[in-house]
Write a structure and sequence with these properties.
This protein is an alpha+beta fold. Helix content is 41%, strand content 16%.
């Protein structure tokens, strides 16, 4: 997949979110079919909830939604769905927030970078084509081989800065 080199700034601007949500869901469905994976009702529901907006959601927020929809009320249901979605590239964990976002770059393996608004919890995702050079050089100097990098930058989006 050809990734944009810039952040997906739609997360912080008005846009046709329905289009990006439908595209991400369709990509997940194609990947599941191609790889023989099963997008169960609970997994699909959690993915749809994560794709509703570019806002990070906690497992307990997702569990509340599952409960309201009558799809389960036990935490393992949401954690199993999240494990599946993250393991297969359909969602990402935003460590700083202890929350999750739907992946807008398709299910292929990529290095994610996030701009996280600490006020509204909106998240813009980008793909790093390679780990930061300085990090890689320092790691290699110690004999360490970098296999996975996730970058999270926290701050305030334009709307939250204007509201402050």
């Amino acid at each position: 997949m050809n990734h944009a080199s810039a952040f997906d700034m739609d997360a912080f601007r008005p846009h046709d979110h329905g289009r990006c949500r439908r595209a991400a869901r369709a990509a997940a469905e194609r990947e599941c079919q191609a790889r023989g994976l099963r997008l169960t009702p609970a997994r699909a529901f959690v993915l749809d909830a994560l794709l509703e907006s570019h806002r990070a959601m906690t497992a307990y927020e997702l569990l509340d939604r599952l409960r309201e929809a009558g799809l389960g009320k036990q935490p393992p249901i949401v954690y199993r769905a999240l494990d599946f979605l993250v393991a297969n590239g359909f969602a990402h964990r935003v460590e700083r927030l202890g929350a999750f976002v739907g992946c807008v770059h398709g299910a292929d393996d990529h290095r994610a970078a996030f701009l996280v608004c600490r006020s509204c919890r909106q998240v813009a995702e980008a793909v790093l084509e390679a780990p930061p050079a300085a990090l890689t050089a320092q790691a290699e100097a110690t004999g360490f081989a970098v296999e996975r990098v996730t970058v999270e930058a926290e701050g305030l989006c334009e709307r939250c800065r204007a509201d402050a």
